[in-house]
Amino acid sequence: MTKGNIVKKYLYRFPSTPTKTLASKIYNENKEVFKDVEDCRSIIKYYTGKKGKRELKKLLDKSFVKKEKASHNPWDKFPESYAETREPYKLAPGKWLILSDIHLPYHDTEAVKMALNYGLDNGYKNLLINGDLIDFYQLSRYEKDPRKRSFKQELDSARLFIELVSEWFGSIVFKLGNHDERYEKWMFVKAPELLDCEDFRLDVLLRCGEHHVTVVGDKRIIQAGKLNILHGHEFPGGSGGVNPARSMFLKACDSILVGHFHKTSSHTETTLQGDVITTHSTGHLGESSPLYMPYNKWNHGFATLDLSTDGTYHLQNLRIVKGKIY
Question: How far apart are CA 37 and CA 67, in angstroms?
Fold first, then answer.
């Protein structure tokens, strides 16, 4: 069924539902068809005649176009806002293994295996990939070595990884990091004409729908009860300094977990009301000494999260050092 037919079916069933609310409902029930909520909203506006006179003339089926009543209220002519809202993604309660910065196919095989085995051996049946699953080296804006892995090879590595973990974990959530976003940014510049073609979406190329992987993009926060989870690139500010967790506290002023900085750190503050706020950054699972930064202060690591239904949680921010987990 095409996008248009799906939208018209919902317009027939819910003729009085506000556009934004209806768009959210359509997207949540048809994620495999629509790119995002704004994609649904745009098609609803087209069939209801709200995309301007030029588009209205092209519209053959005007059964969902409502005739506007004459009004003398000047606010009726106020410009429509295109401001975006980023609704947080709500992580379901349960036991979650959290991996960040794998950078396929430049991953550290042993570190990834240790993290996955630790999670499975300790009953963590849900997986959160907190950004930078793929490196997308050849799509980088930086100077590139043409001898490195091709775009296709990187995709193949990510597809294989997703296929494997989908056999081991019940729920998989993949939040896009700055390296994962390289693909869409490359498309903006090199092939903008293909952005509306579903076959070229990253989640489709990775076959996420086939393996029941939920993709969280647009720099959205993942809310795990009282813990906020971001990749870390959503905030400006470079490397995160000596203590990335403290840098995140100064920017977020809330309990938060990030990856991105390739470094395990934690920072705790207590408010005047006695509330304890703790921020964390996790280690990475990629190569330890890449050519662009062969000497660094990174470390391998991952996290586990036990999330209760009341929003409380227990987080372990673990390090991998010389083949052992601490």
Answer: 25
Q: Among candidates 293, 271, 283, which has minimal Cα distance to 317?
A: 283
* Beta strand extents in 47-141 (DSSP E only): 89-90, 94-99, 126-130
CA angle centred on 37, ends 10 and 175, rounded to 5°: 135
Residues 190 and 263 in one domain: yes
**How far is Cα 174 from Cα 208, in angstroms, rounded to an integer?**
9
Model pTM score: 0.77
115 and 209 inside one domain: yes
pLDDT of 178 higher than 90: yes
29 and 141 together in one domain: no
The answer to whether residues 286 and 259 touch, using CB atoms and an 8 Å cutoff, is no
Strand partners, 97: 127, 304
In the three-class reduction of DSSP (H, G, I as helix; E, B as strand; rest coil), residue 47 is classed as helix
- Over its C-alpha atoms, the chain yields an Rg (Å, rounded) of 22
Please say if the pLDDT value at position 69 is more than 70. Answer: no
Span 6-34, average pLDDT: 90
Taking alpha carbons only, the member of 103, 84, 99, 128 closest to residue 222 is: 128
Q: What is the length of the chain?
A: 326
**What are the tens digits of pLDDT across the range 201-239?**
999 999 999 999 999 999 999 999 999 999 999 998 777
Total count of domains within the chain: 2
Q: What are the backbone dihedrals phi and psi of residue 207, each rounded to the nearest 5 degrees, phi first?
A: 60, 40
pLDDT confidence bin for 131, thresholds 50/70/90: very high
34 with 139, same domain?
Answer: no
* 83 located within any domain: no
Query: Are 225 and 314 found together in one domain?
Result: yes
Domain that holds residue 57: 3-77
* 67: its two tokens: 């005739």
